[in-house]
């Protein structure tokens, strides 16, 4: 796991390139997945290229920026570590040009679920490396994973998904909680992140398949 000091060093252009850590891998997975999800949302809303890139950027980078602010990391890594916005830009651009070749049914849902799992893992692991307290790990893990999607939906003139229906943020809360519990039993951090990524992704996919929803007051 990358420590807070090491994560801050990422913004230093003089730091020699080193192999990617699990935290960076989950970040890249989340950025690609949420860039695709945001770009698809923009395409479905009939936005132009700038609008699509904006949704791709906001979906993939906003959650991490919020997490860094909560953890006192300044400036936020997503704004100064060039590979992250570069990957977001390229993923959005490829989605724009290759959208008609996508054959997966409901690609937005699958990309969004993958991004949710990846950012739950990266957010929870980052928070634990800063301060291993359960509430911090759960909140930062959840905010990292849902923050970008909330901003994406607002920009697309929709009520954010987490406020209206489906088992969405709840999957991230479960994933973040599992990460903290795995750390308590001395589970290897890298393996814990991968496990949480897939657990959160699967919970979201199962929730979509079986239409899981939290209780609500039915309209009269």
TrEMBL record:
One Pfam short name: Gly_transporter
Keyword Membrane: yes
Main localization of the protein described in the UniProt heading: membrane
InterPro entries in the cross-refs: Gly_transporter
Domain of life: Archaea
Location of this chain's protein in the cell: Cell membrane
Keyword Transmembrane in annotation: yes
Record GO cellular component, one term: plasma membrane
Membrane topology, record value: Multi-pass membrane protein
Segments crossing the lipid bilayer: 20-37, 49-73, 79-99, 108-129, 135-155, 167-186, 192-210
Domain Glycine transporter: 25-99, 110-182
Keywords per UniProt: Cell membrane, Membrane, Transmembrane, Transmembrane helix
Name of this chain's protein: Membrane protein
Phylogenetic lineage: Archaea, Thermoproteota, Thermoprotei, Sulfolobales, Sulfolobaceae
């Amino acid at each position: 796991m990358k420590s807070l000091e090491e994560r801050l060093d990422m913004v230093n252009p003089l730091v020699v390139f080193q192999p990617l850590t699990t935290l960076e891998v989950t970040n890249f997975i989340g950025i690609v997945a949420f860039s695709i999800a945001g770009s698809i949302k923009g395409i479905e809303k009939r936005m132009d290229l700038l609008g699509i890139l904006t949704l791709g950027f906001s979906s993939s980078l906003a959650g991490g920026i919020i997490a860094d602010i909560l953890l006192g990391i300044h400036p936020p890594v997503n704004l100064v570590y060039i590979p992250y916005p570069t990957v977001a830009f390229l993923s959005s651009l490829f989605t724009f040009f290759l959208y008609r070749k996508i054959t997966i049914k409901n690609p937005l849902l699958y990309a969004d679920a993958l991004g949710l799992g990846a950012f739950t893992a990266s957010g929870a692991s980052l928070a634990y490396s800063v301060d291993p307290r359960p509430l911090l790990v759960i909140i930062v893990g959840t905010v990292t994973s849902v923050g970008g999607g909330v901003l994406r939906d607002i920009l697309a003139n929709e009520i954010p998904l987490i406020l209206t229906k489906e088992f969405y943020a709840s999957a991230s809360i479960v994933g973040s909680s599992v990460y903290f519990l795995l750390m308590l039993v001395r589970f290897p951090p890298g393996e814990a992140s991968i496990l949480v990524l897939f657990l959160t992704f699967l919970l979201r996919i199962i929730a979509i398949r079986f239409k899981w929803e939290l209780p609500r007051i039915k309209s009269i």
